[in-house]
Specification:
The chain is built from seven helices and 13 strands. By secondary structure, the protein is of the alpha+beta class. The chain has two domains: 162 residues, Gcn5-related N-acetyltransferase (GNAT) (Aminopeptidase, 3-Layer(aba) Sandwich), CATH 3.40.630; 85 residues, Glutaredoxin.
């Protein structure tokens, strides 16, 4: 297998791994992600994947314009590293990470950062993988987030979570708040589903779609792509199916 780079020249012809089905639903998901990517390439977004039909890819971009509530200088931030199904256990995650390391070093960056968690959580790569490759904890944010960093320049200042990420709050103090972006192709569809569940349960809610990196960097969810809040306090970053979300609401 070979690694290829998705850029503005081939994005319309290549699949982008996250949503690879040929049905209309997955085609719509993939298109929303591609439109998001097209607007990010000028900000330094890089998307690399193996030339196979599967979820085996890495996405990263410079910290100054990353869609995460982190701050710092001259670091590359991994948005997502995903190897799934039959492709696990073959060293492909390491190969993808090595691509990011080589790229960051070629750009004279001081290191790489990634958001993980104290315990294994959905949509976040297990921190054990990164620790094995030399990453160290640079910062933490409640309730379970960790910002890991691999520094090439030991004198460089560590990246860190923003104050809003550490406070984990949003402006709406009544009911549920869903704050999301199209960085993930599933977010818009699932947020609407969660909103419909909230409507049926008669729980007031508000939806906010993040439209640029500045808005994301000011948000209260360390995950960046999604934050679910209740009465103004961050509760989870997890995208949930309908029945699981109903249970989540019942337990609030």
């Amino acid at each position: 297998m070979n690694i290829i780079t998705i850029d503005k020249n081939n994005i319309d012809q290549e699949h982008i791994c996250c949503a690879i089905g040929n049905d209309k639903q997955n085609q719509a998901r993939a298109q929303s992600k591609k439109e998001w990517m097209k607007d990010r390439f000028n900000d330094g977004l890089t998307f690399k994947r193996f030339d196979q039909r599967g979820k085996i890819f890495i996405e990263y971009m410079p910290i100054e314009k990353v869609w995460k509530p982190v701050s710092g200088k001259n670091f590359m931030v991994i948005n997502c590293l995903w190897v799934s199904g039959q492709f696990k256990g073959k060293g492909l995650s390491t190969q993808l990470l090595d691509e990011c390391i080589s790229d960051a070093k070629s750009k004279k960056m001081d290191g790489i950062a990634v958001i993980s968690s104290t315990k294994v959580k959905p949509f976040l790569t297990d921190k054990k993988f990164y620790l094995k490759h030399g990453f160290e904890t640079a910062d933490t944010a409640p309730p379970y987030f960790e910002l890991l960093a691999l520094k090439f320049n030991k004198n460089a200042e560590n990246p860190k979570f923003t104050g809003n990420a550490k406070s984990g709050t949003c402006l709406n103090k009544k009911g549920l708040t869903f704050i999301y972006s199209n960085q993930c192709p599933f977010m818009e569809e699932y947020v609407e589903l969660l909103a419909e569940v909230s409507r049926r349960k008669k729980v007031p809610f508000e939806i906010k779609k993040l439209k640029n990196y500045s808005e994301v960097q000011q948000s209260g969810s360390p995950f960046g792509t999604l934050g679910i809040y209740f009465n103004g306090e961050f509760k989870t970053h997890e995208l949930m199916p309908e029945k699981k979300f109903e249970k989540f609401i019942n337990e609030l």
